[in-house]
Every structure is written in C-alpha cells, then in structure tokens.
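To the structural biology subgroup,

Please find below the input and predicted structure for Flavin prenyltransferase UbiX, which we are adding to the shared reference set this quarter. The sequence is reproduced verbatim from the submission form. If anyone notices a discrepancy with their own records, reply to this email rather than editing the shared folder directly, so we keep one authoritative version.
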Amino acid sequence: MKRVIVGISGASGTIYGVRLLQVLKEIQDIETHLILTRGAKVAMEHETSFRPEELEAFADHVHSPENLASSISSGSFLTEGMIVAPCSMKSLSMIANSFNDNLLVRAADVILKERRKLVLIPRETPLHLGHLRHMIAITEMGGIILPPVPSFYHKPRTIHDIVDQTIGKALDQLGISHDLFQRWAGR
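Predicted structure (tokenized):
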C-alpha cells in the first residue's frame, strides 16, 4: 500500500486539496494522511460548501497540525511523498527555512530530508522576490513547485476541469496513475 501525505494550508484554493483527497480516495492501494491547518479551515469555509469533518472523511488518517509527535513526523514512516494543496506563502516560507513549528512543515521537512517527493501547489500572485527565493530554496532541496497554471489544449470547460488538470500533474510527480485530464498527444 502506498502512503501519501496531503497538506492543506491557509491559502485560497482549498478546492485543490479537497479534490486531491477525493481522487486519492478512489484509487486502490493508497493510504492518505491529512494535515488540515486552521487557516485552511477558514479558507475552506469561504470558498467551498465543505465542512472540515466532511473533508476529513475522505482521508484514511487525520493528523492535528499541532501534533509534532505524529507518525508522519518521522523519516521511519515510509511514504510515497507529500502534496501541499494549496500551499500558502507562509507555509512555503516555513518549509524553505525548516521552521518546524507545526506538523505540516515538519512532515514536509521529513519528506525533503528523506529525499522523497514533496509537491507544493503555491497559491499567490503576483510573486515578489522573497516568494521566488523561497521557491528556489525548496527546489534546491529537491522539492517540486507546481503552481496551479492550467493548460488549455485539453479544452477545459469548467473550473472542475482546470482543478483536475493541476491535481493530475501533482499525482504525476508521485507516479500515481490517473485519468483526470487528456494528455497532449501531439499533432
């Protein structure tokens, strides 16, 4: 069984984390571990019709962001990797600087130190130099910065189509098969 950690932080775009959990729930042999920050709960309330308990029901395991003794805070807990969707600039900055004062950041730090796949879906625009420097630092440590920038060759018709394409790209990074969008086949 493959284990995937899903972090949802307090940036706009909680639909990315919601959809990621929905998709992973449908894939056999995937065990999900969710960290939902307080900021994510606030953003989710404003952006979606989901309540935190409903979202948590999609995960196999839910971890409190304050529990730094959680299983996922140790490198001995084997995972395929971690996706933070969306990733706030605060969380991105904390990850870039190994400022492990909550479980989302600690789990990401563990993923990096163990050389596993860390995929961050940052939700901010425009970006200033500090944001970019933190993204460079994470990339230099082996993390993957995957902004939710849609492609249009698959002719998305709905927001759902656009969200699925980003989630599909994140799953590609972990080597998880899906059929969330039509891949470019050339001309």
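Summary notes: The longest strand covers residues 2-8. The mean pLDDT is 97.

Regards,
Lab coordination
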